[in-house]
Design a protein that fits this description.
- The structure is a single chain.
- With 121 residues, this protein is mostly helical.
- The chain has a domain of 81 residues.
- Helix content is 45%, strand content 5%.
- The chain contains five helices and two strands.
- A two-stranded antiparallel ribbon has the order 1-2.
């Protein structure tokens, strides 16, 4: 085969752009209502733990105690227990708990470092 016969140089090859559809990038994630509820319950408990740790308000302390009782319980007898929720959602129970117990900067006027691990058993 002589040079130029059947062979093309890079400048001769024209690449035509192919359309890329959103469905090729975005894998739709549909979850069941039960799994959505599990995620909402977990998010709520984590948010309460984040927001109300160390606050003096009685109502907020009670919410925090309830959330932490749930977050640190190893009970697996009911579907919406913390351990079962984490397993269903694919989250590591130990890792989440370790993050909850790590030292965090104090809020408001306090200047000391405190630990967020007010486990009420």
């Amino acid at each position: 085969m002589a040079v130029g016969e059947g062979m093309h140089t890079a400048s001769e090859i024209r690449l035509s752009p192919q359309p890329v559809l959103p469905t090729q990038f975005d894998v739709p994630r549909t979850i069941s209502p039960e799994v959505g509820l599990m995620l909402a319950v977990l998010e709520d408990a984590l948010e309460i733990h984040r927001k109300y740790g160390g606050l003096a308000d009685r109502h907020k302390r009670r919410l925090l105690a309830d959330a932490e009782r749930w977050l640190f319980s190893d009970d697996t007898r009911w579907p919406f227990s913390f351990v079962n929720v984490c397993h269903t959602l694919g989250f590591d129970v130990g890792w989440i708990r370790s993050q909850l117990c790590r030292a965090v900067p104090a809020t408001s006027a306090r200047t000391t470092v405190r630990h967020r691990c007010h486990v009420v058993r």
